[in-house]
């Protein structure tokens, strides 16, 4: 059966262990997509590169004169030469394209079991983004019916339960609830490739967060088709644990060179800005002229993708994923749209985010909306106050006593005793700007509202006096500025 054990957490991301039968893989996890007819990198070689699991297509195997009988008699692991976890997609997309009604849900599930797949996917209906609500709801109903039908055949916990619903958030939530009721542990979020192909990362965040709100917190979430390393960090922050990539090979065939911040045309590169074995043993010109260019480029692309997954796992463990998300999402305006959309869910993200972390780096106005800032503001009403409140925005101004609060944006006021604790003591803030001051003023408002009847004095200094006054203009409290 499939089980999932969460270990470290940051935002909604988790590092963990995905157990499939007697095999274990670390998450976040990347599944390279394998087409048995076109193997730029043989699975055996992938395993030496550190690949712990892969995904292939049951429909392609079922229609292959070359591989069908071998897979049925020998099993996928022997045919592909891979000892790790193998997941199979049902072939629902191919069925929809080719209209092969003879390949039913029961057929694909039984075939996947027969060829030795360890994560089996029923024939869900991938609802495109332009499907209206009524049509998407009908297709979701079919998908759920097929999941339940498949569970009567695959009753040992090796069935994945896809979450559909198009771009309709109510349907994604409904799908999450119904999938949760099935008890499935491995839950792919499907039909999102068109959103990523058209750079609709804001819609992607909306869809994933809707599903995540109702799926079991203990489920392992697979984001179907999320293949480019530039968006892995954003997806992980939403709580996605598994990704699959055909992009490493597709991009190679098109002569495209992957980096964590985007892709380049190999023909236009004079340098290879990477430390992988391909790039350290070839110059840009040598790689362009190599008869094995496609295979070498695919290997580079896969190594870059695996390295990004490892970087994300380390960031989660260190509690620095927000910084990585911020860095990656500033490489493309549409990714930045997705990042800003994710920040709208900070109330939800706080419910699973770590309370204490290694550091907080301020990287612009988006940092003011991070979970660490919101959580700190919610904590401020618990501060002990004696008789009066004095808030100073200068470390040199005012006495250090029970009535004095220092000010550190974007968090706001803090008592001297918290100076060395997270997040005050572990935050790196550049020269103050208006956005971070306004965010800190939200903390002042929390302190004032929590202590009615207590006089407040705020030492702003000349530079920030007008900004602070404007931020506090609606507070029903008698206070003075000095």
Automatic annotation (TrEMBL):
Transmembrane segments: none annotated. The keyword Chloroplast does not apply. Its EC number is 2.4.2.48. Substrate binds at residues 124, 191. GO terms for biological process: tRNA wobble guanine modification. Pathway: tRNA modification; archaeosine-tRNA biosynthesis. NCBIfam families: arcsn_tRNA_tgt, tgt_general. This is tRNA-guanine(15) transglycosylase. The lineage of its organism: Archaea, Methanobacteriati, Methanobacteriota, Stenosarchaea group, Methanomicrobia.
